[in-house]
Amino acid sequence: DVDECETDEGLLCQHTCINNIGNFTCGCHPGYHLLENGFNCSGKFKRDLICSNLCSG
């Protein structure tokens, strides 16, 4: 079995790649969900993440 996550196919995943026997699936970081295309994730906006890091305090 080829680890598709170690090939160019795994680069299709926006966040994480999970190797399966004969295939792979993409996953998303906490707070995000996988879109219908099976590769991209949607969730928190970058602006919100930047502000939560820079605007607090």
Automatic annotation (TrEMBL):
Pfam families given in the database record: EGF_CA
Gene3D superfamilies in the record: Laminin
GO molecular function, one term: calcium ion binding
PROSITE patterns in the record: ASX_HYDROXYL, EGF_2, EGF_CA
Domain EGF-like intervals: 26-41
SUPFAM superfamilies for the chain: EGF/Laminin
UniProt keyword list: Disulfide bond, EGF-like domain
Protein name stated in the entry: EGF-like domain-containing protein
Keyword Ribonucleoprotein annotated: no
InterPro entries referenced in this protein's UniProt entry, alphabetically: EGF (IPR000742), EGF-like_Ca-bd_dom (IPR001881), EGF-type_Asp/Asn_hydroxyl_site (IPR000152), EGF_Ca-bd_CS (IPR018097), NOTCH1_EGF-like (IPR049883)
